[in-house]
Design brief:
The complex is a heterodimer of chains A (192) and B (177). Chain A has helices spanning 2-25, 62-66, 84-92, 95-100, 113-123, 139-143, 180-188, and strands spanning 51-53, 59-61, 70-75, 103-109, 130-132, 155-160, 166-172. Chain A is of the alpha/beta class and 192 residues long. Chain A has one domain (51-188): Glutaredoxin (3-Layer(aba) Sandwich), CATH 3.40.30.10. Chain A has a 5-stranded mixed β-sheet. Chain A has a two-stranded antiparallel sheet with strand order 1-2. In chain A, strand 1 (51-53) and strand 2 (59-61) form a beta hairpin. The longest helix of chain A is centred in the first third of the chain and has 24 residues, at 2-25. Chain B has 7 helices and 7 strands. Chain B has a single domain, classed as Glutaredoxin.
Chain lengths: 192, 177
Amino acid sequence: MWKPLSFCLFCLLFFSTLTYGFELIGPKTTLLKPVDSHSHLKVGDKAPLFQLPSIEGEKVALRGLLERSHVLISFIPGAWTPICSEQWPGYNIMEEIFRSHNTILVGISVESIPSLRAWIKYLGGVWFPVLSDFWPHGEVAKSYGVLRSNGIAERALFLVDRSGTLRLVHIHDINQRPPADIILNALKGLKE
Amino acid sequence: MGIFSFVLLFPLMASGADEFHLLSRISFDLPSEKDRNYLGVEASQVTISDINAELIILEVFNMYCVHCQAEAPRINSLFEDVNLLYPSGQVKFIGFGAGNTEMETEVFKGKYKVKFPMIPDSDYRVHKALGEPRTPYILIFIGKGPEVGRVLYRKIARPLETQEIISILESNLRENK
């Protein structure tokens, strides 16, 4: 009778010690300030133009993209982080939806090209251009009003129609994944 | 310290508990008539215990999960194989999109042309009832009879063990005959 009881007691003490140890040495998961910047941009404004290097080695200009289609810009805070590593793979299965709305998705991060390239390779690749806003650091993010005070970008979405006008300005809680509904509803609102 | 133990052990306790009865308390909408016909239910708001099947294969997925995306074609193949083996509908499939909205669930279903019902689990109720497993997660349990709710298989499908699942279906449906 005492054997099972002793075993349970041992397990309880063992796991308590283990979890207490993790509390002491493990990294603390702390939430960041949900939104740290105030974008001056609003729906109806002209989108700031930019040209950035992609991880494929080419220069990508917003003006050039707008000649062909509407553009959805997705700023993310950082590669290799749990939420960003889900957000873009989610968009990766939405290619047909974007194409059916004559919209190209563009991903922007303030990280360097080697870091972004390695991360995208780790994710298995994406169909949309991934641009590095590393240097001058966060210049494009800043022009959209989404550069946080610690140098990373907000988790933000901007939909630019072919005339260069902003149709969606959405800055999401950096700690959460924005529902795809935000994009899908904005795409539905576009008219050719 | 006791609280720390409870926090660590809770997922293990939940996975060892009777998932079926936890799931049976969660109702979900089935707006599609096609889905209602497939699952053999009449009401548009049902629980897992309303599904008319001898065995139920439940998948927990997440549209944003690369593993779920990678396994989706294999799960579709399993669905086709099972329908060929059991054409009278003894085995039913149902998927729950953990943390996914209705639109996100539809994106996933449309992308991979999933033919079985996929239900949004936007508030993670189903996911939590199963002990918050990593995805894609496959659970097989008995859907009717004296052993209703008994879990036959529960695993993270990375990768999906198609042959093992088919064997489980075969042995259990044979036993029930």
